[in-house]
Amino acid sequence: MGPIPQAAPRTTVMNGARRSDRIPQRCSAGASRSTAGLVLLAAGVTAFAAVTPGPALADPALPITNVSGCPAVAGVFLPGTWETHADADETQPVGLLGPVATALAQQFGENFGFRFPAYAAEAFDGMAYSDSKATGVAAVRRVVGDFADRCPATKFVLAGYSQGADAVGDVAASIGCSGDPVAADRVLAVGLVADPKQGTAGGKLVGPSVDGQGIAGTRAGGFCGLSAVTAEICATKDKYCATNASEDPITAGIGHALTQSDDSTKIDPDPTQTDDLGHALSSDLSADKITDLPATVARLGTQAASGADPIALAESASDVSKTLQPLADLSTWVFNTPDAQKRLSEASDGSADKTAGSVLDALRRSDVNTALTVLSDIVSQSGEDHDRIGSAQDAQTAANALTPLTDSLSTTTSDSISQAARVLAVLKPSVVINQLVNVVSNGLSFAENVPSLSDVLGRMIGLLGDSGIDTAGKVSGLHDLFGQLNGLFEPLVKMAAGVDLHTASRLIAMIPDTTGTAQVVSAIVAVLANLDVMQLAQQVGQLQDKVWALAQTISSGGDLLAVGARLLDFIPTALGFATLALDTLTGKTTQPGGSGTSDLAGLSKSLTTKSDTNSSSGADAISKLLSEGSDVASFLLSGVHQGYDHYVVDSDGRTTVQWLTDWFGNRIRHVVGVV
């Protein structure tokens, strides 16, 4: 393709000198600001459409300036999530930073070369964010290290966006603080856009001020020797790079959990390790594989028809199976998850969610079990001595079994499939995160209600056993108390609807919340997970209906003796319920030798204490989180990161892309002296 149209590069002059030795000051408060949507988490996993690549370099190697074959300056640009992949052509500019590299190459010609390191660039869809980022760190270190070794005079400019900024920032910190993999004096400039560790000591924020720091925390050692040349750009409403941890500790905690790993340098993660939130919410479903599924199945069918050898068939069968199995697992999960069903079924026509729902519908019309069985047979028999006809027949059987799915995908545009695939790839984590918000929200509400519940149940027990209160008085009192119970139990019903509370408790416990609130909520949810919440709520409703019927009989002038007889039959059931419910709340039902963690009243009291002690922390912080994050998982498909190419960062009206291009260009001219 041809080059991206570019405005003429600008060299800003200040008092007769090029403005290149330092990062320019922020613009005034009145400067234009991005209106990127509010989101909760880590993710920063919103896809940018790939930027049209600039002119390809004449040689796969970087442009040369001398006989050693090395450029004066090498630019290393790491794209964001979904902007690249592990097998990408590193010589081609892509994503948000593509125009920056292209413009610099046009300005400096053979004096400047660039690379866009290939890495996984995934989050949830096939790989946990932390594992994907580790591949990015390794890729940047590889490219920088190769140049450093081969070209001892070459200087560097480094840039990263979103997940790419996370990785490049880590490498920059390593360079600045330890000279690894290259000495700090060889790096002219570092530009980090939407860095989840924004706020790291030494980094200079360019553009309007933001509230808080990156959702992943900061780099403990700072940027050290690269502090003076490290620029951070963060949109004012992008919580990925601007979260106030003191006001939103749970927001920051979840983000930290999703973006971190125990070993950030790990490049060959163990997929069986699910002891952190990021891994727990990740799936084996890759959006790229879903998009490629029709072609993969078609290849399998073609090979079957042409009598391809069993090994070739087995490779194709394995490719189909690796996509089909997690897709089938997702379909089953959606079928059993009302929130996921609702999201897809109520989506507007033409939307990516609607297309994703159509894909799952087509999958359900396919004979998936048959397809997976014969695909497994093909793979397992590839090394055995058997006839080709049998393998070919199995392959054709699998292709035929998947006809409804492949027909649906084949009649949908590639762009629509790609967008729907992205929805499917992140559907489970997005819904699960929303469910966690629901569980935390209603769990807190229920915890706040526990003292009132204990009081109401205690009064109910007293009322039922008080022989001095006549029938009408008891019915009236019970009617009022059951009405209160119904309202107090409502958050519990909302919390439990369509949610695996055991899983929710485990995931909430993974949130590294320093206030301890998340851990208490996790304990409360764990206790409730052992109760039949829906049966409990149903029992409250049934008892309330019986009391209501008694009250109606009395108010209509019915026979009080008959009402009294019905009340006598009702009292043992109501008393048993109230006593058991009160014992459950206070932990008296804990088995001997138990840990005592079933004391809901005690746990609820500890939440109240934390809220009083921490003021804006604890339960109050979660309440604020929930008010801001009602669409918590929308970050997965939202536009929070889209728009940085239009985000104005200074009073000259320059966007992120323009500012980085100008600043890198000025640094190259000033330090290297090339024109």
UniProtKB/TrEMBL annotation:
Gene3D superfamilies: alpha/beta hydrolase. The keyword Disulfide bond applies. This is Cutinase family protein. Residues 1-29 are annotated as: Disordered. Transmembrane segments: none annotated. SMART domains: Cutinase. GO terms for molecular function: carboxylic ester hydrolase activity. Keywords: Disulfide bond, Hydrolase, Serine esterase. Pfam families: Cutinase. PANTHER family: CUTINASE 4 (PTHR33630:SF9), CUTINASE RV1984C-RELATED-RELATED (PTHR33630). SUPFAM superfamilies: alpha/beta-Hydrolases. It comes from Nocardia terrae. The lineage of its organism: Bacteria, Bacillati, Actinomycetota, Actinomycetes, Mycobacteriales. InterPro entries: AB_hydrolase_fold, Cutinase/axe. Belongs to the cutinase family.
